[in-house]
Protein 1
Amino acid sequence: MSDENPPMEANRYPDGSITYPGHPVGPDGEEPVGTVDLSAYTATVLTWTTSTATPPGVRQPNTLAIVEFDVDGEPVRAIGQVTTEEVEIGDEVEPVYCEELRDPDAGIREHESQEWDGYRFEPV
Amino acid sequence: MDRVAIIGASMTQFGQRDAWIRELLAEAGQAALADAEVSPDEIEHLYVSNMASGEFEGQTGVPNALAHDLAAMPAYTARIDQTSSSGGAGVYAAWQSVASGASDMTMLVGGEKMTHRSTAEATDVIASLTHPVEYKHGVTLPSFAGLTARLYLDTYDAPRESLGRVAVKNHKNGLDNPHAQFRKEVDLETVLDSPIVADPLRLYDFCPITDGSAALVFCPESVAREYTDEYVVVSGIGGATDTHVVHERADPTTMGGVVNSSEIAYEMADLEPDDIDVAELHDMFTILEFLQSEDLGFFEKGEGWKAVEEGVTDRDGELPINTSGGLKSKGHPLGASGVAQVYEIYKQLIGDAGDRQVDADVGLACNVGGFGNCVTTTIMESR
């Protein structure tokens, strides 16, 4: 984690809930009141898989996890690549910045339509 | 109220086909018209369930192409895309067109042409339904299945073998389906020894990539009686969505779209889960059969795996599930699958399912898009 890296930005809503990614409105239909940078927190692995049949431009194998952050008592989940294949349910992980998670020009999604950098999860 | 009837149905051979999307749709469409003994000029509404003919093949405008190929002009047409649940959404649109009084004769044709693409390319076309924060990590539908299967097994203390038994059961059922892509039994050992695709799931936990098409003919029950004594009635139907971002669901082992769509369908039909005699579920991955069988209310949460182990869902069990062989054995041409599920229930309820026949008066089809993102549940009854 470095101050130069973009944040792993989640939205906070009036009811206290936080979502990653952010949405125009929260679960209660209200607009967000702020953001949280999840890269400043650690998370717990809820579940994981190692995918061997990956699409064009994606590393193979691709280990993925759904993790849960605890932001001052509010749970926030995220999905992302794991830096290693050695991971278990319940492991504590920290977000690690990656400039390009998959080749933006290899798949069907338009390159300019979205960002391709983000955070992988590394067991602490 | 005049109920909505299905008076004819067809499905093409599923598998690797030389035909392209237009030809597949026309093949099923012509066969369903012949089955219903309806002429093309009687069709008032013509719906086509298809996810991605433009992305797969570079052929768009398929509803109009089909109208011309069937000589069904000037029928109103629309393409129904709801990803993997395009077929179920098409059933909903067709039902709605008749129930609303807008059409007295509606045809639905679902189809997809996929096998000319590599597995990686086809996987990417399907994965393009994901949110950008999922897509950039290389998240695919099979990887959602792996993530959910691990959590399910861990949460409910279910053995890995129980997932394998879904594949064994559905392959056994598919043996008697002449239209199925795979008509081959597999044993549990083969499933458990097959290559890992999305740990803990292996090759035989996944449906294949498939070309194929299926079609249904809908009309008011009062009109149906003019054509045939062999028809079924759509007595309940519901559609629902869940989050686009899969990890935002409170319980990743529950498919809210299945719960909500089935509640609507049960209420409309005035039936309970216990009333269902036979069901076609969206077993794109073995784990999905557990999740749906629980979220439809057939079994308690976390108990679906036991029902499969105990043979409850076998063809000769108390509640046969996927007598057609399911997506697992029959194949999964995206837009066709939800239509083919209803084809199977139709055949079961009119007593024309051949070697697959079970004793059933009430059947249910549950078609799932994305990873539970969009769902249609349809309940049908014998006349």
Protein 2
Amino acid sequence: MRSDTPTLLGHFERMLLIRGVEDEIARLRTAGDMVGSIHLCSGQEAVYVGAVAALDLSRDAVFPTYRGHGWALACGVPPEALFAEILGRVAGINGGRGGSAYFTAPEYGMYGENSIVGAGAPIAAGAALAASFDGSGRVAVAAFGDGALNQGAVHEAMNFAAVRGLPVVFVVENNAYSELTPIADMTRNPELFRRASAYGMPGGRVDGNDPDAVARAMETCVERARGGGGPALLECMTQRIVGHYIGDAQHYRPAGELDRAVAAEPIGRLAERLTAEGVAADELDAIRARVADRVQAASRLALDSPPADPATALEHLYA
Amino acid sequence: MPEITLSTETKRLSYAEAVNHALRRALYERPETLLFGEDVAKPGGVFGVTKGLHREFGDRVFDTPISESAILGGAIGAAMFGRRPIAEIMWIDFSLVALDQLVNQAPNVRYVSRGAVTAPITVRTQAGNGPGACAQHSQNLEAFFAHVPGLRVGMPSTAQDAYDMLLSAVWCDDPVIVIENRTLYHGAKSDVRLGGEVEPIGGARVRRGGSDVTVVTWGAVQNLVLEAAEELAAEGIEAEVLDLRWLNPLDLAAVRDAVGRTRRLAVVHEAHTFGGFGAEVVGLVAESGADLLAPPLRIGAAPARIPSALSLVPGILPTREKIADGLRRLVRGEKAGDAGALR
């Protein structure tokens, strides 16, 4: 065992939890218990677990996208509350008002998914703007996919954050696809981190399937922002090993691409690394079993929760 | 920073000066307020409305890039964390490039989180046609925003309301859009009561009494309505003019009371008649079962873009003559409306 092994075991368990929850959501959606469009993050877990490891969730604020289950779980949202939210149940984190693609969990530092590509970036800049007045030391994380780099709101947010030196880290989850279209076909320079220099902020690219590498790169960005150094852009290279949404047949993928993505997915990779560091197979299996039990128990709990009460539908619109 | 004192007496102020006094008071009394937008700080605003505030309040009043999504999204994010931003969108036409933040973002914050997070932003903007304005600097878009549950919408038409309603907006815990009118900014001064309690948002005002017809109106066009009402008074027709002030919350009780008295309803707005908020007012009155003596009348802009040339504009926007003619016909029981004319 090495000194970083306990940290990596923590990453391993959190990534397994995200994967297990996503697999269970796929089952519930296919079975018809869940309805609507659901975007799973399987394969991208290292980005969330690594990035959140660098945050202080008692004051920092994460603004993810509609592919946000992984961010929520990495922030500590209980899986039962997440399942119940997508099921539209009373016990949901927003009582069913958010659903899969637009829930918020401020008590966990997770300030809302966003179903509009790139729209969370200016809002994250606003959270950082508040930090520049309130002395909290808060760092805001604006997370979005590669496709969002072609949204005007993201450009505006980056320039605004840079010119005001706001404590924001822009995290790009580059899974190579803007929804169903390769990002490489949608921009002349697919090295998205290079855009940072145009705004006068640092930008870098990291292996987004390595939670440890993401965490270390993120720590640099977060410390810099918290210390008054302003925003940064961190491009995390990853791949989803599922469709853009549940039911996406992925015909657009070239032959063999998905197999290669599965072979490179972060959980198996980390298991190999932990094994190489001397962690016994039994210990990894025990973690797998513990997570599987937790996912199943959470799913049952959520399914037992009653549907959101229609009498409350008009509440909380105004102060 | 110089020592700041607030006037609390009645002063003769222009509409723009009244807005400036309200902003000063908000910045002074609510340390969590921020004021930002394009050219609002060092330049003092393209219409001079915010002049002096950056000097008095320092970094809390700042200039932004020409980035409406960043302005509005930044306001929302800051509001979620305890600030009370007052964001300026220089022309309401510019709000369209950042409509996502106003429609998809701000009004959902409280609702989805069931009040765990809120976005108490105030968006100040100005709307309406003015001499020589082009088609992208002349629109009246209040119906867009009034259509969105979760957004509050007000349109002050007097200097007193410019002061009062802006403060009500800043004090309100909902996202509020206050739509000012630049043709009013530097007009005649009037007495404005400063200080006093900040009223909650909402509430219509009767601007002129009358028994023959109720004219529901809002925004700068109200001045044309009042002139038309004076013209009609000389002919023995007394029009009651009700300034709606707030489209959300809507003071439907005031509208129904007024229409109940006069039993004739006209709605006048500068915005396009088709799909305009006047249709909502007429619809609500109709649904309430009002016993009207004549079909209700809507007067607004004809369905066209807004041209720049002075000679072209009266063919599209409401004028004093069109308003007087419409009200005269309504009261006389002649065909007044233009229903179905969508040329």
